[in-house]
Amino acid sequence: MPDLPSVDARKLALSALGEMKRARQPITSVTAYDYPSGRLADEAGIDIVLVGDSAAMTVLGYDSTLPITMDDMVTLTRAVVRSVRRGIVVADMPFGSFQVSDETAVANAICLARDGGADAVKIEGAGPSLSRARAISDAGVPVMGHVGLTPQSVTQLGGYRAQGRTAEAAHRIVDEAGALEAAGCFAVVIEAVPAPVAARITEGLDIPTIGIGAGASCDGQVLVWHDLLGISTGHVPRFVKRYARIGDAIETALRAYVAEVRAGTFPTAQHTYPMPDDERRRFEQGWRRKA
After folding, report:
1. Are 35 and 142 contained in the same domain?
2. pTM for the whole thing?
3. Which of 125-134, 174-183, 232-241 has the highest mean pLDDT?
């Protein structure tokens, strides 16, 4: 087994992910959107910190990932990059940033790497995205692919539903993943795809696969920060496991704060700054003279 970077290493190299695949060492990934989440993910030993365009929904309050802009993604990526010392930071390329042309895709990928500080970018789909992936990679920016359920194409896919559930659709996704590897991607996310299909993709690729709702045979797993920690509300995909109920804890804390402020029990003396008695007397005397 090759020597792999430890959790205490300064910075993982992209090549380490390939080494982890060959050594059958599972790769961990989670989304993050700001300095605190990036820091906590990094300190926990996460290998890939994904600044996802899912921030459109989890952070900015939109109904889909489509409205988030390049400016938004650069700002969020900068914040995460400032906190991550060990993991690889991958930034999602938002809708409209790579679909138009190879030239536009390269310019926006360079922006995320140069201005946002991302170590790599992620693009969704195959088809025209193959040309984009190759162009971006040739320009010197590492690219992660994404097959299966691709949220930027959710309207064409008929909603947020599993993909590859027929033999024909499964073969197509397997082919797309292989084409993304051939186009220069260093890894591929497989989302909401039956486990046997994801297993076949993982077996057939030399590059790592990162699953989300794609079974345990993928080389790594990724979850959305707000889903994993129990902050998100509404429908939760079946592939999500909540490792905490942080949202409930936050609401409880805020309700307690509201109650204490309204009752006049917060703040108390221990939450205020003292003033020396002589300075207080001088202040009050001066105030009385002004009055």
Report:
1. yes
2. 0.91
3. 174-183
